[in-house]
Design goal:
Distance between the termini: 50 Å
CATH class of the largest domain: Alpha Beta
Helix content: 40-55%
Order of helices and strands: HHHHHHEEEHEHHEHEHHEHEHH
CATH superfamily of the largest domain: Alpha/Beta hydrolase fold, catalytic domain
Strand order of the largest sheet: 1-2-4-3-5-6-7-8
CATH architecture of the largest domain: 3-Layer(aba) Sandwich
Structural class: alpha/beta
CATH topology of the largest domain: Rossmann fold
């Protein structure tokens, strides 16, 4: 590892960045300036500032589409700047708050309607954005259950795929994610998250503009496990879409090879490292699908890579065994293009998301009865 630059060590992260919408040139330029983990937030912030200035210029000139795009890039780079800070600190909250603030500009100038909503949950609410299709007063909806080190803003780009196909996408910060973790201090607990998913479905079903019996659920990465459990728990979901199935808490390289950053991430979001001892062990136990003692009954489609170096094809096959309804397994073939170290998670499904996502959302449109 001697002589490797930060850019060398972070090549494996690029597919996730481009999947969200980061521009490859900005990624390479920013990574090339980063000389240490301490300079990571600062350099991503520098890149974001360039787009904030372009967005402000476009906004003053009345160029709404350009303003939307420039603010979108700025938001993503602010998001990248704080993403790797697994710490309970004012710095983390300040950086995250800035990203949330800029995202409001993205929403303001978006060419299709997005509504900021608060989903009732327990004694409070869950912050969310509802990406709505143009020209429809009533529509089906897909609930997005995200993975670990994520927030609802990161998935903005996915809203367009839903809107174009005549259904809405609800991107929500479930307990332990995004605003709920960094502002509300809520911790990640899988049973709580599954209950929150049902609360989101009930909220959507109660809206006048959502068709109540046509609400699906999407789970991505670690969120694939939570989303799948949500569909098994709540049989009123109309369909279940899984992108990168993680059916059990293990990976191909074995527990001894899991890097420290992965455990640090889980311990932070579950609260195990910030005052809730035992939360990490509980998370691992709750991850097991057989604990739910229920199966998914709605139509389910699972997109799974065949050459992922952490998550193998058998994970999709295992998840499919917990489906009593129609299930389709779609292999995403090909070796990873982006390299990394032995501690890197090389994710070829994200490298191929440019075709996976349109095909996946076409399937959702068929299940929910919308075609455009």
């Amino acid at each position: 590892m001697t002589g490797l630059t930060v850019r060398d060590l972070t090549q494996w992260m690029i597919p996730r960045m481009t999947m969200a919408g980061c521009h490859i040139t900005d990624i390479q330029r920013t990574l090339g300036r980063i000389t240490s983990t301490d300079s990571w937030p600062e350099e991503w912030g520098r890149t974001a500032e360039q787009y904030l200035a372009l967005g402000a210029d476009a906004e003053r000139a009345g160029h709404r589409h350009t303003a939307h795009e420039m603010y979108f890039y700025a938001m993503l780079y602010l998001y990248e700047g704080q993403k790797t800070l697994f710490e309970e600190s004012e710095r983390k909250r300040r950086l995250f708050s800035r990203m949330v603030e800029v995202y409001r500009k993205v929403v303001e100038h978006c060419p299709y309607p997005i509504e900021r909503v608060e989903v009732p949950y327990q004694a409070g609410t869950l912050p969310a954005y509802l990406h709505k299709p143009l020209g429809l007063s009533r529509f089906p909806c897909l609930l997005f259950i995200q993975g670990m080190d994520s927030s609802k803003e990161e998935w903005h780009r996915w809203g367009r795929y839903a809107s174009e196909r005549g259904f809405a996408l609800l991107c929500v910060d479930t307990p332990g994610h995004g605003e709920t973790r960094h502002f509300g201090r809520m911790l990640l607990d899988i049973p709580e998250l599954v209950a929150a998913a049902s609360a989101c479905r009930r909220y959507l079903a109660g809206r006048a503009d959502v068709v109540p019996d046509r609400i699906g659920v999407l789970g991505n990465c670690l969120g694939s496990n939570y989303g799948f459990q949500a569909a098994a728990y709540d049989h009123d979901f109309a369909c279940c879409l899984i992108i990168l199935a993680i059916a059990e808490f293990k990976n191909k390289t074995g527990d001894w090879d899991v890097p420290k950053w992965f455990f640090d991430m889980i311990r932070f979001f579950t609260g195990d490292s910030t005052g809730t001892p035992g939360a990490f062990a509980k998370y691992r136990t709750d991850f097991a699908l057989d604990r739910a003692n229920r199966k998914v009954t709605c139509p389910t489609r699972i997109f799974q890579p065949t050459e992922d170096n952490w998550v193998d094809w058998a994970q999709a096959e295992l998840m499919a065994k917990y489906v009593d309804g129609p299930v389709t397994l779609t292999p995403v073939k090909g070796e990873p293009v982006f390299s990394g170290t032995a501690m890197s998670h090389l994710v070829p499904i994200y490298e191929q998301i440019h075709w996976v996502l349109p095909v996946a959302f076409d399937w959702v449109a068929e299940q929910l009865g919308t075609r455009r």
